Amino acid sequence: MWNLFSKKNFTVYVKTGDRLGMGTDDTISVVLQDESGLRSGKCQLDNLLSNDFESGRLDSFQIAIEDGNFGDPVYLELHRDKFGFHDDEWYCEFVRVLSEKTNQVHMFPIHRWVRAGCPIKVKEDDAVLPQDDENVIQRQEELQRKRDIYVPAFKEATGMIMVLNEYPVGCDHEFLSAK
Ligand SMILES: [Ca+2]
Ligand SMILES: [Ca+2]
């Protein structure tokens, strides 16, 4: 029973994309889930007096999970909630979680824009192909969103150079390499 009284401490590292506009001042939170399905609460990542999640930064945060039975995280949910009226888009490269108890590092690749109110759920070391993606609906929504962005822009663009210039930085990688 002693386990119930020992918190689990984690250090959460978050890498923000390094191009202009990729940083945010919105509220960022994570939910961790272990292999037995236990979920942490929504942990807000916020360092006092620090401007977190700016372009190119690797920020680190300490979080504690009260439930001592919580194991090591295998799933991660990443949330962005608007801080003000402005929708401050954020591009996250990855989240890495260090368990202080086991000294294990858990890597959660993100490599995408995180939409306000639409949490991204990723599995540890997730490198699945699109057709094997467990989060099919999420993937479809992303594709639809890309179409919404790209289609009107293509009509107006006169060539690839202009196309590249007109897109939000970071959105173009998957799309262009998939062609
Ligand atoms: Ca931004
Ligand atoms: Ca910030």
Automatic annotation (TrEMBL):
SUPFAM superfamilies: Lipase/lipooxygenase domain (PLAT/LH2 domain). Residues 8-128 form the PLAT domain. Transmembrane segments: none annotated. It comes from the Eukaryota. SMART domains: LH2. InterPro entries: PLAT/LH2_dom, PLAT/LH2_dom_sf. Pfam families: PLAT. This is PLAT domain-containing protein. It comes from Strongylocentrotus purpuratus (Purple sea urchin).
